Amino acid sequence: MPEKTITPNDISAVKDTVAREIACLKKLEELLEQAPLPSVLDKMEKTTGRIIFTGMGKSGIVAKKIVASLASTGTPAFFVHPAEASHGDLGMISTEDMVIAISNSGESKELADILNYCKRFGITLVGVTKNAASTLAQYADYVLPLPDMPEADPLGLAPTSSTTATLVLGDILTVALMNRKQFTKQDFQVRHPGGKLGAILQRVKDIMHTGEEIPLLDENTPIPTILVEMSKKRLGCVGFINQKGDLTGIFTDGDLRRKMSPELFTKRGVDVMTQNPKHVAGDMMAAQALHFMNEKQITTLFITAENKPVGIIHIHDLLKLGL
After folding, report:
1. Domain interval for residue 235
2. At what angle do helices 8-34 and 161-181 cross, to 10 degrees?
3. In the prediction, which pLDDT does 115 show?
4. Which residues neighbour 192 within 8 Å (Cβ) at sequence distance 6 or greater?
5. How many other C-beta atoms are found inside a 10 Å radius of the C-beta of residue 68?
6. Are residues 159 and 262 in the same domain?
7. CA nearest neighbour of 277 among 318, 231, 237
8. pLDDT of residue 157
9. Where are the beta strands (DSSP E) in 96-244?
10. Residue 238 belongs to some domain of the structure
11. Mean of the pLDDT values across residues 213-220?
């Protein structure tokens, strides 16, 4: 079938919807300049429990997205369905938690039990609503206002502008807390391990340097030749083998700095190497190897088979996997 051409009505819907939602967000920006946003952020940052979000219908769907954003950026949060709360899930909310209830009108009857529960046990309650005179606003310790503006649909009824404003308010809370906590890329990666299962399950034999890439010399090699090999292979070390081909020692760039002297250049590998260097079998998982290297405070690790070196890994090889 041929592609349909966009109609004037479609173009009008695009422009009208975007314009109305932008206007709603600009109004949200104005409202938040006068709202107790800093106090809410202080409470969220300092709470010893979790941030509990709740809401019915579309508000609940948006609340779940906000929870996901907060939880993935270092703020423990989860969603409690208000209807389920009335049938036992109130027990999931402790006095160390704080509750953020979302209701555009502020009159969702399903929220009643949660509001009463918060008052009864002194749990901090934040209301997110456009109705400052609503039941939710009256119960709340803090109110974060939503713009009291028409929805973007032709009837002005379907949750559109209001849900967009709520979603952006959630992003504001998330970003502000990330800034306050100085949340880093490394912190983010720790909470987003999805897609890294293959990397975690890789074994060192799958990622190790082999063959000519291994910085390996006879233990009787003179220092000048050792330094050339170390510089050439660029792994920060040289390993040594005996006449049988067994791994007998290692000399690192750290050793070079510590042992630097005019006499050093008259010595051989066997004179300066650290004997019996750390080494593992090729079947060790990459994540285990990283733990082993951190524990032993080493940056390179030889892989051996029957004490014969078959490969080497650098800690950067493991970190590149995102472990």
Report:
1. 198-319
2. 50
3. 96
4. 72
5. 15
6. no
7. 237
8. 85
9. 98-102, 124-129, 142-145, 216-218, 237-241
10. yes
11. 96
